[in-house]
Amino acid sequence: MPQPAIPRPRLLPIRIAVLAIAATALLVLPGVAAAQPTKRVAKEAENSTLNETILVTMKGKTLYSLSAETKGRFICTGACLASWKPLVVPANVKPKGPVALGTRKRPDGRTQVTYKGLPLYSFNGDTKPGEANGQGLKDVGTWHAAKVKKSSSAPPPESEPPLYP
């Protein structure tokens, strides 16, 4: 006795759907996986006045942070911005430098570059590369140059034997 034919599901529509999904994923994923655009905004420089290695703009102006701008607070707004220029990048751009940099959205919507969580600024009182005239200025907090690492100082002079043994 012949066996009745078993109906087989139509696999062609399923295969077409799977291929369509795979093709779409190949087209979409490279855009998703693409690296976030970056922009070099800072470099490090030895500052002889401060005897420190500090962060500077690409044009050599000292970068500062305000001690009171912690925990996401922005103190330097309004009139403060006449003297202190925020270091900003376009939205969705990752800042690059010699150290890890981050960003924080300012109250005016701009994206400000941060170092160790503190927003970075240049000072209008620094007119030439290498100046650090904003170091130690006080208002609501204290302005400090963004130190990268301690400069190596000259070795101590050789000590002389004590006069009285």
Helix content: 10-25%
Task: Give the radius of gyration.
Answer: 29 Å
Element pattern in H and E: HEEEEEEEEEEEEE
Terminal CA distance = 121 Å
Number of helices: 1
Count the beta strands. Answer: 13
- Largest sheet composition: 4 strands, antiparallel
> Roughly what fraction of the amino acids lie in strands?
25-35%
Shape: elongated
Query: What do the pLDDT scores average to?
Result: 84
Note poorly predicted spans.
154-165
Class derived from helix and strand content? alpha+beta
List the helices and strands and how they pair.
Layout: H1 12-33, E1 38-40, E2 42-47, E3 52-57, E4 64-66, E5 84-86, E6 88-89, E7 94-96, E8 102-105, E9 111-115, E10 118-119, E11 121-123, E12 143-145, E13 147-150
Parallel strand pairs: 1-7
Antiparallel strand pairs: 2-3, 3-13, 4-12, 5-11, 6-9, 8-9, 9-10
Task: Give a written overview of the molecule.
The protein is of the alpha+beta class and 165 residues long. The protein has a domain at 38-150. 13% of the residues lie in helices and 28% in strands. It has 1 helix and 13 strands. The protein has one helix spanning 12-33; strands at residues 38-40, 42-47, 52-57, 64-66, 84-86, 88-89, 94-96, 102-105, 111-115, 118-119, 121-123, 143-145, 147-150. Strands 6, 8, 9 and 10 form a 4-stranded antiparallel sheet that branches. It has a 3-stranded antiparallel sheet with strand order 2-3-13, with no helix packed on it. The longest helix is centred in the first third of the chain and has 22 residues, at 12-33. The N and C termini lie far apart (121 Å).
